[in-house]
Amino acid sequence: MSTNNKTLIALDKVSSKEYPITISGNGKYAFDSKQLDASIETTDDGFSVMTINGISYPIEIVSRHQNEYELLVNGVSYLFSVETPFSLGRKKMLSAEASESTTIRLKAPMPGKILEVLVKTGDSVKAGDTLLILEAMKMQNAILASTKGTIKKVLVKEGDTTSKSDLLIELEKDM
After folding, report:
1. Architecture of the domain whose range is 6-99
2. How far apart are CA 132 and CA 136, in angstroms?
3. What are phi and psi of 61, to 5 degrees?
4. Would you give the end-to-end CA distance of the chain in angstroms?
5. pTM confidence score
6. Are 137 and 154 in contact (CB under 8 A)?
7. Percent of the chain with pLDDT over 90
8. What gap in Å lies between CA 39 and CA 110, rounded to an integer?
9. Assuming Cys at both sites, which of 47, 133, 161, 167 could form a disulfide with 115, CB separation 3.0 to 4.6 Å?
């Protein structure tokens, strides 16, 4: 293998299974150490056909957003992203950090005034409990706990004025 090889990973968005594909400097593809002769062409009548090792498959690109694709191949839908080894490693790291984090930071959904704070640091709450009342545009909005947990920190008090996205309360999820 030459040093011009690139590896891309097709990441199945449903099963999270990884399919590494090596692209050599001369434009050849390899998957699972097997050479692939692959191409995608659009026919005169506007249909797309993917040919792999001499076998043709009708395909339709259902959606494409940045590096994420949904393809319809022979009537079967495939949802995947195309990643570099670096981007896949970063995605895994960020996912692990997000699942390890047990602190939920509740932010103001809109500018307003705090009318009432119903919890204090150390209080146990369950999902759906009202934590505080925020008045915005002459309407009272209840800010609710999204999960069962313990109030870690209350950052506002009655009478405070908040801007959109101001941090109101930190809630530690019960595990």
Report:
1. 2-Layer Sandwich (3.30)
2. 13
3. -85, 105
4. 48
5. 0.51
6. no
7. 42
8. 51
9. 133
What are the domain boundaries of the chain? 6-99, 103-173
93-140 confidence digits (pLDDT tens) = 887 766 666 888 899 888 999 999 999 999 999 988 999 999 988 889
Structure tokens at 152: 């870690």
Secondary structure of the chain as H, E, C letters:
CCCCCEEEEEEECCCCCEEEEEECCCCCEEECCEEECEEEEECCCCCEEEEECCEEEEEEEEEEECCEEEEEECCEEEEEEEECHHHHHHHHHHHHHHHHCCEEEEECCCCEEEEEECCCCCCEECCCCEEEEEEECCEEEEEECCCCEEEEEECCCCCCEECCCCEEEEEEECC
Encoding tokens for residue 120?
């204090």
Q: Which residues of 36-50 are buried (b: 16+ CB within 10 A; e: fewer)?
A: eeeeeeeeeeeebeb
CATH number attached to the domain at 103-173? 2.40.50.100
Contact 128, 145 (CB under 8 A): yes
